Amino acid sequence: MPTLPEDRELSPYTGWTRGHWEAVADELLLAVRPYASPHHGLINLPGPRPSASGPRSDGLEGYARTFLLAALRVAGAHGDDPHGHLARYAEGLASGTGHTHGHDLWPLMADCPQAIVESASVALSLRLTRPWLWDTLDDRTRRRAVDWLLPALGPPPVDNNWWLFGLTVAGFLQDAGIETDLARRTIDRSLARIEEWYEGDGWYSDGDNRSFDHYNGWALHLYPVLHAHLAGDEDLLDRYGPRLRGHLDGYARLFGADGSPMPYGRSLTYRFAAASAPWLGALTGHTPLGPGATRRLASGALRHFLDRGATDDRGLLTLGWHGPYEPVLQNYSGPASPYWASKGFLGLLLPPDHPAWTGREERLPAETEDAVTALASPGLLVQSTVADGLVRLHNHGSSESGGQDDPGYARFAYSTRTGPTTEPTALPDNHFALVVDGRPTSRGAAEPRGAGPGWAASAHTPCPGVRVHSLTLAHGRAEVRAHLVTGAPEGTPVRQTGWATTPGGPTAQLQPVHGYAVRTASASGPTLQGPRTRTAALHGTTGGGSDSLFVALASLTAEPDPTPVTALADIEITGRTLTVTWADGTTSVRTCGPPGN
User: Fold this and answer.
1) What's the rounded mean pLDDT across residues 93-121?
2) Residues 469, 483: contact at Cβ < 8 Å?
3) Angle between helices 85-97 and 114-128 (to 10 degrees)
4) First vs last Cα of the chain: how many Å apart?
5) pLDDT tens across 255-280, in order?
6) What pairing do the DSSP bridges indicate for beta strands 534-541 and 198-200?
7) From 418, 443, 520, 567, which residue has the greatest number of CB atoms within 10 Å?
8) Can you tell me the distance from the alpha carbon of 327 to that of 422, in angstroms, rounded to the nearest whole number?
9) DSSP-derived 3-state class of residue 426
10) H or E element: which one contains 468?
11) 186-212: string of b/e by CB count within 10 Å (b at 16+)?
């Protein structure tokens, strides 16, 4: 990656400047060139397997997602293009939508729904580079490109953030004066649909389920706010800009001091696309972050992955997290999917003299003070500690609908230095289960039961007739995990697991407080942090009453030689009420159970 010297005066935390970002963009774009089809309409990257949409769709994905990177690079330089990126994508647009080069043709949206996703990157790229690419094309090429794009304006086949792909195509067409009435109707309809998923405080659910993850930043905020900015639509910016600001107020706390975004949710192979929303805040002025903190966050995220093997020896982004790691992939992930990380280069649209580029880097929220922040709308609790820069996410409100528990959503806790265990036979980390007929129950849908200063609560139904009410209290690096089981037969085994840590990684501690009788620890397989992990577990059984309370004290820290977790909190239990006196003398009192009890 870039050989430019670091600037530790301007960027004391990462050493990187705008020049490093431009160099990385060029290197990523030059690395994919050998895999382009003869007339550049497809970029067929090597990979372990094709996506569910097939190789031709994957080739379009390679074109569209790297085109977005090229567009940001050239638009940010006001058309300066010394490597000739746009000429190749202009030829690819002509061949992909034409009829003269069959081996370059793009799949039609009617035949390949994934093409709708890629149409957004194509349209946004054309919008950003319009003076240097679109306006130079002949009418025939432009007509064919429009014909290929227009089907994206219909209702999408997937009822989630996919509505915003049509919005993005419509924004380009409106800007170019093409089918403007249809474009306006598409924009209005798309915005009306996502409005139904807005939960407040800057958080959207990605569809009708309670799925809260990085799609908030790199899709649900990105496309409407960027469209409003590019269109100069102040009314839209006045509506969506404050939402972006509210989102960033909590979202910026999900990045560790090592630059890692929280490995939580789906599509994690998009990696530093997580930096797109903070850049967008700086671009539009709707951000709680100072300019230097924005660059610190974004450069930290980019360096985090590049320094840990996100590209292979050919300079290609791999399918995985740090390096290749198949368990974070979905069936729609293909060899070019990681290049949605191009969104993370949105900061290049800021002029070189913008304070986000010229200001001295500032500390991240995780580096300023120990903090426990409740994100009430998604039901999340964010816990960070300055001593090690670690960030932990306690999940009491987000889940993926249907089927078995998804490791990216169903765990009670995630962190920037651990990853969820993924092997079906491995011990799941940060999980609470009843053991029924020898098998642990799934969590299923998490039903939020509130979040406030230092706490969050939820409930779930692991099996018919049984309810589990869960509560997390956090302070410093300490976590109190409580679960009230109602409706289970007497003597039903239960199991609470802790953090899955790698050799040489952070130290995890898990201590029984109430209801547990046995503590064990065992190998728990690979995670995105490494090939070997170990996870502790606590075991108990339900009592003979109508409900049974189980309480544990946990900690995850990268501090050397940490004190025992028992020194971090003193816990008194009265019925269902927990009174926790933390090591600094402050006290938290919460009741674990259904409201009104």
Assistant:
1) 92
2) yes
3) 140
4) 58
5) 999 999 999 999 999 999 999 999 99
6) unpaired
7) 418
8) 7
9) coil
10) strand 466-475
11) bbebbbebbeebebeebbbbbbebbbb
Strands 380-385 and 198-200: unpaired
Q: Give backbone dihedrals phi and psi of 40, rounded to 5 degrees, phi first.
A: 70, 15
Each residue's pLDDT tens digit, 408-447:
999 999 999 999 999 988 999 999 999 999 999 999 889 9
List pLDDT tens digits, range 3-42: 899 999 999 999 999 999 999 999 999 999 999 999 999 9
Distances (CA, A) of 41 to 87, 101, 141, 166, 321: 12, 9, 13, 21, 28
**Which residues have C-beta within 8 Å of that of residue 138, sequence separation ≥ 6?**
none
Instruction: Identify whether the C-beta of residue 459 lies closer than 8 Å to the C-beta of residue 482.
Output: no
Count of other CB atoms within 10 angstroms of residue 497: 28
- Tokens 């065992």, residue? 522
User: What pairing do the DSSP bridges indicate for beta strands 432-436 and 439-440?
Assistant: antiparallel
Q: Which two tokens stand for residue 213?
A: 């993850």
Q: Would you state the structure tokens that stand for residue 275, as one six-digit string?
A: 């930096």
487 closest CA partner among 459, 460, 468 = 468
Is the Cβ–Cβ distance between 287 and 281 less than 8 Å?
yes
Measured CA to CA, the distance from residue 403 to residue 496 in angstroms comes to 22
Q: Is 448 helix (H, G, I), strand (E, B) or coil?
A: strand
Q: Nearest to residue 495, comparing CAs of 512, 479, 509, 507? A: 512
Angle between helix 18-32 and 291-306 (nearest 10)? 40
402 has pLDDT over 60: no
How many residues belong to the chain? 597
Please tell me the distance from the alpha carbon of residue 318 to that of residue 336, in angstroms, as a whole number: 8
Alpha-carbon distance of 394 to 589, in angstroms, equals 18
* pLDDT band at residue 595 under the 50/70/90 scheme: confident
For residues 274 and 340, the answer to whether their CB atoms sit within 8 Å is no
As given in the structure block, the two tokens for residue 288 are 């709680």
* DSSP conformational letter for 158: S
* DSSP states along 518-548: EEEEEE---BTTBS--EEEEEEEE--SSSEE
Eight-state DSSP code of residue 113: T
Distances (CA, A) of 590 to 129, 326, 452, 491, 495: 55, 40, 11, 27, 22
Q: Which of the 8 DSSP states describes residue 320?
A: B
Quick one: three-class SS letters along 164-222?
HHHHHHHHHHHHCCCCHHHHHHHHHHHHHHHHCCEEECCEECCCCCCCCCCHHHHHHHH
Separation of alpha carbons 412 and 396, rounded Å: 7
